[in-house]
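so my prof wants the structure for this chain in the tokens format not the other one, which i didnt know existed until like an hour ago. anyway here's the sequence
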Amino acid sequence: MADLLRKPFGQHGKVHDLTPDVAGWRYVGFGLYRLRAGDRAAEATGDREVMIVLIEGRAHLNGAGQDWGVLGERMDVFEKTAPHCLYLPNETTWQAEAVTDCVLAICSAPGHGGHGARRIGPDGITLTERGKGTNTRYINNIAMEDEDVCDSLLVTEVFTPAGHWSSYPSHRHDEDDYPRITYLEETYYHRLNPANGFGIQRVYTDDGRLDETMAVADGDVVLVPRGHHPCGAPYGYEMYYLNVMAGPLRKWRFVPSPDVAWIMERDA
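here's what i got, hopefully its the right format
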């Protein structure tokens, strides 16, 4: 069985620390801090670029030699407002001091010094509807390819209503064959409302060599090294996830599962 479902270490401090070595791949890193008011966190980026996403709460951030002030307005992720984020290039450092209880996602990928430090959001991030019927979900694009703000990272938030599917119709981005498809590793950081619920995520390849279906709890991370990766929210529980993607080319091109390609053709 593939080890794709990662539980948080606890409820305080750094509760996720997924480096490429830990994940068993080459590009994506994901960390998560749950801080109480007054707590501090600090890291060096090394050879990686970093996007800090304030999932919830407020924090005073310093990074790349600048004081960025107090960032964050969203106290509950399910407010669905746009997040405050901070992009930092490789070979820099950052420090955070929690002003309120807060949750900080640390998204990373190889950095090449091509972009300077900058705030991202909430201005310029608009909640956008995608899909039809019970495939409808709502997107906060933080740093997708049409925003030239990162060297490698692609970052987005998705809100899936109760009883709906997301990352569906099933698709994959696991080959380096642009423009047909790009190779992108991906993490899903899941939240649920109410928090005592569960969601479902399946990760599978066309040949069936990888086929895992997981019940995800609030705060879990799912790794997608290859294959299709749809997820669903049961009736009564809405789902949020933060996607982090990276690969050799900062382009998102995917191929649908042959079994569901007709849905994409019908809904195009």
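also thought this was worth mentioning. The radius of gyration is 18 Å.
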